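User: Could you check the structure of this?
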Amino acid sequence: MMDWSQWRSQHMLGADEIYLNTGSFGSLHRRTFDDYVEGLREFERNPTMHHPIFWDRADDARRRLGHFLGSPAEDLAFTSNVTVSMNMAILGLDWNEGDEILASDHEYTAIDNCIHHAEVRHKLVVRRAVLPTSPTSPQQIIDAFAAQITPRTRLLSVCHIFSGTGTIVPVTELAALAHEHGAMIAVDGAHAPGHIPLALAASGCDLYGGNCHKWLCSPKGVGFLYASPEAQERLHHIVVGHGYRKEGTTRAEDGRMLIGDRPYMWCLDQWGSRDLPSLVATATAVDVQEQIGQQAIAARGRELTTYLRQRLEATDWATCLTSAPGAEGLTNSLTAWMLRGIDVDDLRAQLHERFHITTPAGRRDDGQWMRVSTHYYNDTAEIDALLNALEQLRAEA
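Assistant: Sure, the predicted structure tokens are below.
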């Protein structure tokens, strides 16, 4: 049996902190932290001479990440976060006036802003699939998109795991739907890597952006963009730097596009100076999670989520916004709730200042909203502490 407390002790989290917010930022494992810091020390001994050496190491880390994600390394560009990745995906395509983007009504604000920018700049039409807050089957999500797709749809843009509810979207089926209608699909995978197992090349997704600093627990400021070989043919630079060649692209023997002697995607991420030690240390973050096992991490998250759900559902003041754990894989380690009877101005601040609990929360028109991340370094005692804190705040209201 896995000793999860040992894994908790190996992370950089403060001993007095109850950290339930991996959905925003993951905590570094000590090995990852140490490798990152040592990389910074080595790099800074001579930044000029070490620059090419660390790019070679970053390419090795890209290979480790690709294996973890189920993607050839040649199909990955390193980015700083998923917002950058989705901008590269959406704004890097050619558009004609009147083309349509199909998205849901649950998309993350930053990505929605990118879609709106493309809509205004290129005079596009944005259509919305209206989704239930807590779907009971993946088919409900597929049907909502199918009802809105048209012959003018050029891109289906969707979040893999919705930030506000934790709902997991069936992206493989949506990719098939998009392709049946001659469209591409771009997926915002901010919460997926390190949260649930991925197989990007087999998913059918054309474009997939992800964060490594959340559930994968890499250094902050590491993300990626995956593009299938077919999608790369249609993807342009949105920042032009040293990765660009005036003479254009060439072909490798296997038909892959190259810029100079490097894969096309490896040149899309040449945006000037980068924090190369953070990219290199991402390989250590992958090593840590592969040592535990992706399936084991996902199962641990579900176990804790189920415990949290059972405890909150036993109250008369909490309503879950996230589908039930048994609802055909529609949820895993991220759950959201509406809470009644907690009348405080800033629940997030109160939880941390008084109880050392970190989790997103805030007042909405229909009550207090709260989102809880249950990663492998959490335990049931921390969930109990959260429930006790909420009960105390209710008693004081």
